[in-house]
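WP5 quarterly update. Target: Arginine--tRNA ligase. Source organism: Paramagnetospirillum magnetotacticum MS-1. Length: 576 aa.
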Amino acid sequence: MNLFKYFREEIIKSVEAIIPGLDTSKVTAEPPRETAHGDVATNAAMVLTKAAGMKPRDLAEKIAERLRAHPAVTEVEVAGPGFINLRLADSFWYERLAEVLAAGVTYGQSEMGKGHKVNVEYVSANPTGPMHIGHARGAVFGDALASLLVKAGYDVTREYYVNDAGSQVDVLARSAFLRYREALGEEIGEIPEGLYPGEYLKPAGQALAKKHGPALKDKSEEEWLPELRSFAVDAMLDMIKDDLAGLGVRHDVFVSERGLVEGGKVQESLDYLNSQGLIYEGVLEPPKGKLPDDWEARPQTLFKATGFGDDVDRPLKKSDGSWTYFASDIAYHQDKYRRGFASMIDVWGADHGGYVKRMQAAVKAVSQGGGDLDVKLCQMVNLLKGGQPYKMSKRAGTFVTLRDLVEAVGKDVVRFIMLTRKNDAHLDFDLDKVLEQSRDNPVFYVQYAHARCHSVMRHAAGMWPESVGHTPGVDVLARLTDPAELGLIRLLAGWPRQVESAAEAHEPHRVAFYLYELAAAFHGLWNKGKDDTSLRFLIEGDREVSLARLGLLRAVVGVIASGLGIFGVTPVEEMR
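C-alpha cells (predicted):
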C-alpha cells in the first residue's frame, strides 16, 4: 500500500464532497518536509483555491474538517497560506507493519506500470574490446533501472544495441588479423597507430590461427576482411557478455546495427521520413564558435530535426555517400517503436549529451508523436585509492577494465557504489573507502544493518525456538511505543512510495538514499538500546515485546533485501 496515494484519494473525496467537479490532478499528498509537522501534507487548498472561488485557508479549513473524521487521522493542522498537515494514529502504523511482514521481500511491488511496455537500452558499447570502468556505471544504472521498473509493475525489456556496422569494426578486424599473424609465429613489433593495442585480441588471433592455419595470411584484405569482421565482433561480444555477467548484468535482446543496415531497415526508415516531407537537400549554417578544420559548406541530405525540438537540422549522409550513425540510430529507434515500445529509455555516457535532442526529435518523427525517449546520461567515474587518482592494471592496453574493478572489490560493492549518486553527477570510486567498515561507506552501513538483524534473530531462536518464522499480530506489534520504533515503522511504510516515485523519475539512486536512511534509523534504535536496557530487542522477562521487536527486525530485513534486490546486490546475514 502506498499510503500517500491512499491519502491523496481520501483528500480528493473530501474536496469532491465540498465542491464537486474540480480538476484535482495537481493535488498531492506527500511526507512533510519536517517530521514535526505530521505524517502527511497536502497542497489541495493551494492548487484548488482559484477554481473553488475561495481563499486558500478557508478552503483548507473545510477540507480539514472532513479529514478530521477519518479513523486513521488523530490531528489535522492548517499551516501557512493553506497547507494541510495530517498526523496519523499509532494503530495505522501497526497495520502497515503487519503488511510489511505479510509481504516480506515482495513489499513495495506496485501495479503502477501494469500493461505498460518499456525498452531500456544500456551499455551498447562498441564491440571492440572489454568493458572498462566507464561502462560499469551505465551498465549498473541501466540494469538497476530496469529492475526498479519491474518492481513498479512495468513490462521491461533489457536491450543492447551492437554497433557493428561502423569503421571501428573494420579497425577491429585489422587488429585481429595482426594478432592472427602473431599467433602464426610472425614478429609483429609495436602495434601500428590506429589499431587496437590491447592483449585481449590475442585469443582471437590464436583461434583464427587454429581455424585457418596460414590460409588467410597471403589473401588480400578485401578477401579476409568480411570474415574477420564477423569473427572479431562475435569474439568481442562473448568477452563483453562475460564481463557483464561478472557484474551481474544481463540483457534480454541484442540488436545488430549491421543487421538493420543489411535488412534494409535504414533505407526503409529514411524512405518513411522522406514520404513525410522531413528530408531535404540543403546547406547547414556553420557551427557557432571556432570552425572545425574539416568543416565545409556543402549540400547535404538533412533531416528536419528543428521541426521536433532540435536546434539545427541533422545530416543523414557522409561526404562519401554512406549513412551517418544518426541515420542508423533513427532506424533502430523506429524498429523499437514498431516492436511495441512506445516508452524507450537509453542510457548513454555523458560525452553523448549533444546527441540527445536530435535523437528525441527523430523518435517523435518516426512514431508520429506516439513514442517517448528518455535519455539518461551517466557521468564519469573517478577511480581513487586513499583519495588519490589510481591506475590499476591495464590488460586492455589503454584503459582500466571492469573486470579489474570487480576482482578488486567484488560485484556487490561495485553495483551499490555506482548507484549512490544521481547518474548525471560525477562519482568518485575510492578503492579504500568502498571496503571501509564505517558509516561513511554506504554499502557496508546498509549490509551491516541487515546482518545485525539476523544476528538478533539467531540469538532469539536459541531463547525462544518458537519465535522462528513467527509473525506477531497487530495487538502484539502495538507494544512498539518508543518514538524511535515508530519512526522506523514510518520509514518502512514509506517504501512503496519510494519505489513508485523512483520508477516514475527513472532515478534508482533514490533507493540507495532510502536504504541508507533506513539503516541509520535501525542503527540508531540499536544504539538507543545500549543506553536504555528496556529498549533492547530481546528482553528475557518480556516475551511479547521481544516478539514485537523481532517482527520489526524481520520487516527491516525484508525491505533492505527488497531494495538490494533492485540493485542486484546479495544481502548478507553475517559480516566477515
